[in-house]
Amino acid sequence: MTGSAAILAGAALPRQASANVPVPYSWQQSPPTTSREAFISWMVANRGEDPKIVAMRWDRYLFLKTNHDFVNDRNGRAFLLNPRDEFVMKRDIARAYDRDFHDIGFGVTISGPLVVSRMTSTIDVQFGEKVLEIGTGSGNQSGYLANLTDKVWTIEIIKPLAERTRGIYDNLISRGYTEFKAINTKQTDGYYGWEEAGPFDKIIVTCGIDHIPPPLLSQLRPNGLMVIPVGPPGAHVILKIVKQQNPDGSIRVARSNVYNKVVPFVPFTKLQDDVVKGTHDGPR
Ligand SMILES: C[S@@+](CC[C@H](N)C(=O)[O-])C[C@H]1O[C@@H](n2cnc3c(N)ncnc32)[C@H](O)[C@@H]1O
């Protein structure tokens, strides 16, 4: 089998719906968290999801909660409503809620649920805030964000991956997951952000780099937050960046390490003449 045929065989292509979402999405709607059984029955009745899959989601939710990987109930709700299983390769559906990252083709990965929850919680997105994600990848992270706010922008550099993920979102929307309408997608080099859509209240970067891209910092609103993996290749730490505005209008950038671990992220690559080539690391 060729590389591209292998990718297609396991691809996260839009799935045929077993059922459309029976109850329209509402920001007031939250699944019960009193018991595993109550959660599963609610998800089957309201979201038309497979009980075996949502059982795995519940088990990961309890782990994340105990591990303090999300900060509050709103972030927990977003994890519970986001169908992570739709964003992994077909061969990985049974492992979609494992703690590890998975290969999604094109040499990149869907980040593990612990890192995704920790990073999302770091920017604690409020309803109505504008959020920019760099590195759409599988689409899972923006799905999580779309359960926190109705204004999400996401950029992916790899063209066929960006198109595949757009297809997954469109398929979900057609099946009644209307929250995915919040997500605006674009294929380009995310180093330069999405100026026309900015400024953003929050920015989340899901590929690793050795510095904070100045265009992203300038598209962050004063007092906005960014979360970004920073460090040498394969050894990033997850930084929270606060763009503080002083009373005199001057800007100060505060950074803190929010995850006491070194995490190897997919590199923050560059687009040169429409080809992905090299990274943004190194002297500028
Ligand atoms: C860890 S992976 C995917 C994470 C993703 N948020 C998810 O939920 O699956 C990081 C992604 O960043 C993308 N990426 C790398 N450099 C980029 C750039 N300059 N602009 C936009 N996306 C980039 C990669 O192609 C990859 O899809």
Polypeptide structure, described:
The radius of gyration is 18 Å and the shape is globular. It has a single domain (3-279), classed as Vaccinia Virus protein VP39 (Rossmann fold). The chain is an alpha/beta fold. Helix 6 links the parallel strand 3 and strand 4 (152-156). The relative contact order is 0.12. The strands form three sheets. A seven-stranded mixed sheet has the order 5-4-3-6-7-8-9. Helix 2 crosses helix 3 (51-66). The chain has eight helices and eleven strands. The structure holds S-adenosylmethionine (SAM). The site of S-adenosylmethionine (SAM) has 24 residues, from strand 2, helix 6 and strand 4. The site of S-adenosylmethionine has 24 residues, from strand 2, helix 6 and strand 4.
